[in-house]
């Protein structure tokens, strides 16, 4: 399969202020791609350019095999874009809102009626079709927005931080929907500042910060290459653990403690020996998979949450 999106050396400024300095990454067709970065990193700007809403200053962008500068109109017809801000008519029902958006996308009549039923089902709101949007929670409104972007059966859907500020139930619905969209062959580009979301949802990612891509590629490949392994220890009682000789001071994590190390097997052996010497009962002692948190830290020297 080819690439659904190719971005090369993309730059964009708002006035004199650069939002994207030099952005290069590509999104494989059929993947769920996570665009991860702190607030102000340039995620929305990238997504608006990909959706044809904002012209780039420099660089090459192709979406579904077409150059964005030459084929903006065709691209808009094949892409579903879910903006961060919610644009719905509060007094109208979910169905009437979707009728409005469907007609805007050129879907009409019986086909539109059928599609509205399908997309409401997909976002888990089929039973609320007739209710005014004003009675919906923030998360439900976001799901109507996503439904609107799916009406014209896009091959690529671009979602700008769809889980910010919503209830856990809506978040789960959105996650399930993304998984099922991907299964049906739709390419998903998804932005977030939550690393855990990318780890559980996406198979490819780019980390963006200050308008520049820090790293991009397959999730496992990035974790293997730039992440740090760690060893996790939980003791039977809440006692402070001994130090595994030669591996530094353990840091508290969840109900236990961790040490980061490129040699986890040796650290496990050293920690087990130290616990045994003090007759401490071990509840759990295991290797922890590298996380995007450690990738971000090793590449930037700061944590994503600090930004
Ligand atoms: P993100 O989506 O990662 O939070 P944005 O793409 O929204 O980042 O913003 C990137 C940078 O561009 C930020 O510094 C932001 O303040 C700036 N920016 C975004 N939109 C505008 C705008 N319309 N006018 C001026 N500056 C903007």
Structure description:
The protein has ten helices and 14 strands. By secondary structure, it is α/β, with parallel strands linked by helices. The protein folds into two domains: 3-224, P-loop containing nucleotide triphosphate hydrolases (Rossmann fold), CATH 3.40.50.300; 228-289, Alpha-Beta Plaits, CATH 3.30.70. The strands form three sheets. A six-stranded mixed sheet has the order 6-7-8-3-9-10, with helices on both faces. Strands 2-1-4-5 form a four-stranded antiparallel sheet, with helices on one face. A four-stranded antiparallel sheet has the order 12-13-11-14, with helices on one face. The longest helix has 16 residues, at 168-183. The radius of gyration is 23 Å and the shape is globular. The mean pLDDT is 92.
Indicate the radius of gyration in whole angstroms: 23 Å
Helix and strand content put the structural class at: alpha/beta
Strand content: 25-35%
The CATH architecture classification of the largest domain is: 3-Layer(aba) Sandwich
> Low-confidence runs (pLDDT<50, min 5 residues)?
none
Annotation, overall tally of beta strands: 14
Bound ligand species: adenosine-5'-diphosphate
